[in-house]
Design brief:
- This protein is mainly α.
- It has one domain (20-125).
- 59% of the residues lie in helices and 0% in strands.
- Helix 2 (51-71) runs antiparallel to helix 3 and helix 3 runs antiparallel to helix 4 (106-125).
- It holds the Pfam family DUF6113.
- The chain crosses the membrane at residues 21-42, 48-68, 75-94, 100-128.
Length: 140
């Protein structure tokens, strides 16, 4: 016999709750911190190639994964990655005077594409908070 009337609705059927003001402020701070990391990485990566490039990408990975582990949500990894990407894309545009921030070399392209790859990996590896998750291990 089935007891369908006594089960809880699935997690996806629960209503959406917007984040609290504190969590939104934390995500905004992480977005700004990601932007600062992007600017610092853009300044460091051409200076000591390839060490500067590796240092810049390690800083982004450390920020994204560290924020995700500290907060326990994927959004905490996505917020600094979005700030990093926004600043780096804005730095790649040329100005009317013809000046630009990134040279047309392999290091700049590795920084741009490597940073995007690091952001995707960090957001994928970030811990996921499951609704209704309790301390009991399921399926064991």
């Amino acid at each position: 016999m089935s007891d369908r009337g006594t089960t809880r609705p699935p997690a996806l059927a629960q209503p959406f709750r917007p984040p609290s003001a504190g969590l939104a402020a934390l995500y905004l701070a992480l977005l700004v911190l990601g932007a600062v990391t992007g600017v610092a990485g853009a300044l460091v990566q051409p200076g000591w190639f390839p060490g500067g490039l590796l240092l810049a990408l390690a800083a982004e990975a450390g920020l994204c994964l560290g924020a995700a582990r500290a907060v326990g949500r994927r959004g905490a990894a996505v917020a600094p990655a979005a700030g990093w990407a926004l600043v780096v894309v804005l730095l790649t545009t040329s100005r009317p005077e013809g000046d630009f921030f990134f040279a047309a070399g392999s290091g700049s392209y590795l920084f741009l594409l490597g940073g995007i790859a690091v952001a995707v990996m960090c957001a994928t590896l970030a811990p996921v908070r499951r609704p209704g998750d309790d301390a009991v291990r399921r399926g064991a």
